[in-house]
Structure formats: C-alpha cells, structure tokens
Amino acid sequence: MENKPIYILAIESSCDDTSAAVLCNRKRLSNVVATQKIHEEYGGVVPELASRAHQQNIVPVVHQALAKANIDKKQLSAIAFTRGPGLMGSLLVGTSFAKSLSLGLNIPLIEVNHMEAHILAHFIEEENTKTPTFPFLAMTISGGHTQIVLVKDYFNMDILGQTLDDAVGEAFDKSAKILGLPYPGGPLIDKYAQSGNPKAFPFPKSKVGDLNFSFSGLKTSILYFIQKNVKENPNFIAENRDDICASIQYTIVDILVTKLKKAVKQTGVKRIAIGGGVSANSGIRKALEEGEKKYGWTTYIPKFEYCTDNAAMIGIVGLLKYNEEKFTDQSITAKARYVINS
Questions:
Q1: What pLDDT, on a 0 to 100 scale, did the predictor assign at position 39?
Q2: What is the mean pLDDT of residues 296-323?
Q3: Are 54 and 162 contained in the same domain?
Q4: What is the sign, positive or negative, of the torsion defined by CA atoms of 182, 188, 189, 192?
Q5: H or E, element range at 250
Q6: Its pTM surpasses 0.85
Q7: Which of 115, 195, 219, 238 measures 20 to 30 Å from 337, CA to CA?
Q8: Do residues 111 and 223 both lie within one domain?
Q9: Domain of 106?
Q10: Number of domains making up the chain
Q11: How confident is the model at residue 16, as a pLDDT?
C-alpha cells in the first residue's frame, strides 16, 4: 500500500505554533511553522492569545504547505490533526479546521496523539537519518512534557515514567526567568553553559520513585539560591552567569540520564530515541554520545525541525494510521489531557 502515493495533510496546533505539513508516503514535501512572538513579552504562553493567533495563522499556513508541496488539495488522501494533549483553545482551532476540510473534500480524518507523534517522528524518511528498530526506549523532553516510553510497535507503547510536576523545558525556562533572561530562556542557558563550570554550584536532585521525574523542587532551590546570593552581592548573577547556567544544565541533564540508565537496566533495551524541543540542548546530546561509548547505547535524534512542535510528525502518524485504516468520524473532539494508548 505504501508504494502508491498517499498524500497526507497534517495540522498541529497544540500550543503556540501553528503548523501544517504535506507528506507523500513517508517523505515530507513541506513542513510550515508559524511561531507566535506575542508571548515573549509575557514570559510564557498565554492560552487565550495562542488560540486567537492560531485562528489568524491556520489558513495561510495550510495554503503555504500545499503550495510548497506543489500539490492541489484535491490530491489529498486524508487529513491528520493533533487531537491532544495541549491547550484546549489551541487544539479546538486545529480540530475544527481539520474536520471541516475533510468534510469538504470528502476524505478520511485521522486523529493523532501529540506525544505519539514526537516518538514516531523518527520514521519520517530522511537522507542520512537512521531509524530505530522495535523495541526502543523513547525519551520525549519538551516545554510541556517529560516522558520515558517503551515502544514495542507503532501503536503499542508503555509509559515507564513521566514528570509529576514541571516538564524539563519548563525547568530550563523558569530557571532562566529567575536569572532575568528573556523567554524562551532554555536555549540561552545552553549557550552560556558552554563557557561555565558545571560543578561550580551543586543543586539538589529530587528523589522521586522509579522512572518518574520532578523538577519543581529544583526550580525552588535555584530561586532561593539566587535570592540569597543576590542579597549578599547584587552583581552575583552578572559575575557568575556562565557558571550558574552550566550548573543548572549539568543538574537537569544528570537527572535525565540517571533515569534513562535505570530504564535501560529495567528493560534491557539499549536503543534510545530522543524527541521534543529540549533534545536540541547540547548538554543532553553530549551525555547521549557519552552513553553510546560508556554503556553501548544506540541513540537516535531526528532532524531538529521534527523535535519542536511541527506538523510533519503529525503527518507520519497520519500515514501509519492511514495504512491501517484507523480513521475517525466527525463526532471527534479535542482532548486537552490525552494519554498514549488511551
């Protein structure tokens, strides 16, 4: 079935990026993302503003995706869209648009779990990119999610551990905010960490059970640490910025890798696939490279454009579901909380 051209239009609107992509079989023809800049002045995503921006962006973004792919909407085989998890207002925009378009074109509608899409992004066909074989461990690390999942097949996954509070991307961004860095601050912590000493300031690591994560305690300890030192020396942040960033990054990466080592030990699976925007972090990538040498892991990281929220990853799940005729009907609704395999 995969030999005949199947054209999937995919729509992603779970948070603050409006994205549309066209896939022909497993190959990406286009992947357009409109980023919302309005949230920068608020230091984080404002849900109401996000949904309004999606309404403005979705038609031009879909139009651009079709134009870049050089296909007519009448050639489309199906529409795939993010059903959840995410911000309800944002999800409603993408869901409503996808339902209307599939009805208008009289083609199948395919709902996609955003978390499954981060994992299955590894199966988009790209030159010089290796694809994991089953079973593998997937670690999704982003602004809103932190999960370790055992992936047995495309749609057979077990969540082994996840965050109990803040996601790892949140921990980076909130730490950056404490340091007075602009939003999103995660990439800036990574940038300044390059010149700092990762062992300069030891921060405590939360001891939560088994393979789950907790980052709220770390964030609080960073806040108290900064407040205490700034009180004693008003120039403390400016004088120690690189060392503080390096120490924060070292602590977060160490938490992630410790859990990953535990997951490998428990499952015996040494194939590790990383996804989510935080996988761009240089400290995490370096730790994974070291894990390959030290522990014999094989690591898989997709192209950066498939790590952040994007529609191409929604499209690959749409294609895989299309091949199995896993379609949905017009009664489908957006789901803010949507667990893998539910």
A1: 45
A2: 94
A3: no
A4: negative
A5: helix 236-267
A6: yes
A7: 219
A8: no
A9: 7-124+306-323
A10: 2
A11: 78
